[in-house]
């Protein structure tokens, strides 16, 4: 059974281990393996003008094991938009339908008139395929910079 809980500090080491498991993602996005600073940034960095209550860092457990994190921001960049900053799943469970199950649940809870928005690196073909499979559509392209590595990203949206 999947459970979703708000982040608590005693999970920090487990979260960092999850980040370290995702070597391929971090090499692709930032050109280096995950660091403690990556975890701190995802936990604490908010876009300009975003209040603390709008920023959410959710732990995803499967049978009591931490298998993923979901970072999202309410009403960003516009009202009625939920911006998904990160959906990071353990490589051990990828390809087993858990990500699809998570998206199905999130879509069911999305209120009418709301939409999801996210950014995917153009080179991250696995993620692009996942989001397109879940009916996200490309609406824009923008540069993305992490750890001094700049690359092209696609802005995708889903609306009920």
Record keyword descriptors for this entry.
N-acetyltransferase domain-containing protein, 160 residues, 38% strand, alpha+beta, acyltransferase activity, transferring groups other than amino-acyl groups, Aminopeptidase, 7-stranded mixed β-sheet
Summarize the structure.
The chain has 160 residues and is α+β, with helices and mostly antiparallel strands. 30% of the residues lie in helices and 38% in strands.
Describe the fold and architecture:
- The protein is built from 5 helices and 7 strands, in the order βαααβββαβαββ.
- By secondary structure, the chain is α+β, with helices and mostly antiparallel strands.
- The chain has a single domain (2-159), classed as Aminopeptidase (3-Layer(aba) Sandwich).
- A 7-stranded mixed beta sheet has the order 1-2-3-4-5-7-6, sandwiched between helices.
- The two termini are 26 Å apart.
* Mean pLDDT across residues: 94
Alpha-carbon distance between the two ends: 26 Å
Strand content range: 35-45%
> How many individual domains?
1
How much is the radius of gyration in Å?
15 Å
What would the principal axes of the Cα set say about the shape? Answer: globular
Number of helices: 5
CATH topology name: Aminopeptidase
Question: Can you tell me the residue ranges where pLDDT is under 50 for at least 5 consecutive residues?
Answer: none
Order of helices and strands: EHHHEEEHEHEE
Which class of secondary structure composition applies to the elements? alpha+beta
CATH class: Alpha Beta
Strand order of the largest sheet: 1-2-3-4-5-7-6
The portion of residues assigned to helices is 25-40%
**Overall strand count:** 7
